[in-house]
Records
---
Amino acid sequence: MNNFSLGLPPTIQPIDSPIAQQAGVELSVLRLDAMHPWVNGNKWFKLKYNLLEAKQRNLTTLLTFGGAYSNHIFATAAAGKLFGFRTIGMIRGEERLPLNSTLRFAVEQGMQIFYLDRQKYRERHTTALQAQLQQRFGDVFIVPEGGSNLNGVRGCMEILNNQAFDTVCVACGTGTTLAGIILSLHKDQRAIGFPVLKNGGFLASEVDSWLNNYLVSDLPLADEAMSKSWELICDYHMGGYAKVNDELLQFQQQFTQEHGVPLDYVYTAKMFYGVMDLLKQGFFPKGDRLLLIHTGGLQGNISY
């Protein structure tokens, strides 16, 4: 329990794509989705050091936040059961019965579910609300929504694990995962984030904030002289967060059928679609070794 290891390192799957071959690019997928049936993807990396800190502080209850279909709620409930923590989920919005598949799974894993109206939910990061929750539930370890804190960034620094690729692509919601990947880059590597939200350019300042806050913290760095070559490509949000269209649905189904890689509609399908479109445009230099990070989230497909 002290190491909080799932015991299943992610595999790299080469993608035999005529589009990539024509572009002269070597295409592979880092299958974080296949690490564990329930605790997988970037959610595991964002949770890992939060779990360790809770353990070190002798806290036995995790309290966190999320929407009704949250991958983070799903993963936190499963990780809590797996590693012996009691879990509490504060869910955005009003109770709706019967529970959807995500919340039903969380309850089955032992998570206690409570609801915050949308106005109160917007205060989830404030010390005032967190103090109220501590008073209500006792001495709990509060994990922010999505595991988005410096512990989460630190965990995401372990995703690449010194893989020898030139360009790394990842879908972005908060920028936490991208920040961790950037901090782990070696010289001559670059990272590209694909925001899944409309007008996602604001994430550039969010990523910068994560990077700056991490660099001035006491948390470990793999290499202080690392490259920080990264960019955002904001053209593939398909209308906004959790929005899908027929083109994306068709792409997801076709990609899964051709390559045996299931994609979720909210995050990975949009990033993979964007990468394949950019390959057609000759965006990536010939000879580029391109690694796509599969961040999991497949349970969310049930809602579609």
---
Amino acid sequence: MAKRADIGSKRLISLAPNAWVQWVTGNPQVRASQLLDAEFQWISRESDVILKASSPEHQEFLILNELQLRYDQNMPQRMRNYVALAEEKYNLSAYPVLINILPPPSTVTIVDCYDKEFMGLKARQDYRVINLWEVDAELVLEQPLPPLFPFVPILKGGGSESKLRSAVQALRADQTLNQLEPLLAFFASFVLEIPLIQQIMRWDMTVLRESPWYQEILQEGVAQGIEQGIQQERRGSLERILKLRFSEIPVEISVRIQALTLEQLEELMATALTVNSLDEFSEHLPN
């Protein structure tokens, strides 16, 4: 059974908080000191991460990180509320940053401020916007910036086999990063063929499903398509193993293989390599 892993925003940022705060602020003198509670009375989401930071120029302040799978047009209002609640709770000035992971439809315009006037009164909240598809993959790997390693395939210039291999190597070089490999595989599936990804790296769907981004994509129907593609590839691999070992596969076994879930298929791969006959393999198939 797969080991439980947290591959949400807080986990990613905590991997290298100083590198992260310097990147989002563009200031090499900023240092992170503490991850703070991002839960408020009415708002609590896994994509919100608050860091207490400091710099010689600004002393202590908050960095509010909002990681969004896709930008939505309610974000300016949300960022305004986020800043107000955080500043009230911690009594420190806030530097808000919105990080968009995947590009929105071409009809959507990304804005970097909340700006509203009502009855002659104005309200405004600026925030920094970072679009990951505009971030150079090579710089992320060279810097390095570990929290962004899982996103390398969807970064600028990152959608190639060589960049994926470089990202995998970077994750495997550090024991604290190895649980991020399923997330890297997931984002690679947006730009590369699934069989190629599976050839290069492991793909643990049990771990991946714990990611808040996977759950969000699931609602859009994209994740189902990716998972179905993996499932079909696993069926083909299982049948190829059986054919190599026992020649033809009876129709009855083939039909039962078609009904297996992804988890069942993955469990039966090892079984197919160790059983002595198709009859023995059949005994391991779910009823």
---
Amino acid sequence: MTDTLDKSPAASVPPEQIKAIPVRHYGRWVAGAVVIAIVVLIGVAFSNAKINYSIIPQYLFDPTIVSGAWTTLYISVLAMVLGVALGVILAVMRLSSNPVTSTVAWFYIWFFRGTPVLVQLLLWYNISLVFPILNLGFYKDEMNQVMTPVLTALLGLGLNEAAYMSEIVRAGIQSVDEGQTEASHALGMTHAKTLRRVVLPQAMRVIVPPTGNEYINMLKTSSLAYAVQLPELIKKATDISSTSLAVVEMYFVACIWYLFLTTIFSIGQYYVERRYARGSTRNLPPTPLQRLRKNLRMFGSFRRPEVAR
């Protein structure tokens, strides 16, 4: 009976093969077509605009523009160094159990985060109207001679950045488990040594990414120093446009320099973040260069070998 059932015609027919039909995402095609159409319209609009694109390469490496880019670079670096150093101090003061220091730090952060950077720059630039003479006891001079555009930009940008950096550092310190601090104190380490040797190295994984983002933002915010006569990139581009009458073209030149500087520091930020992520991630993601090499190897493996004649 069993042999008869096994030899039946129905049992010998193989099952029908399942055909997998992929889901069609028509919305993606429509969205892609809309985006391409918008990009084409923007390109057509700029191609027909009254812009002399041939002037841009001529002024891209002009000594005046290069000096302005250099000024933008070093004032942003100095302001960021001041902001990071003061931000660490403010973060420690904010986390202190001393009500005086924590209140002073909170008031500093509240004031500098609540007022525009441009207003702070103008206040420092016009501080001689309030204090005509700077008298420190061991040093005395007119405030106009002391408060140069470079010092004005450094104080205006650096002190404002310190308020934001203090919150970033505070978040990084609080991300470290309290057991690390308790264990350090049990080993006889002081609070300052614990902070320097144990807490801050572990907090860097949280501090570094927003700090890099803040510096890239600082590069662009430094353009506000144009209002206090600092000879940075925008000031130099504006000076050239006033004589050449190529206003928009000079702004394009400034944009290219800003994009170049932010790209360089973005690459540096990526590798710094990768370094501090070693302790938290078992397998680090491949770098862009490693991904490129992998794709090239895959492309080479797909190539057909040449047939020998």
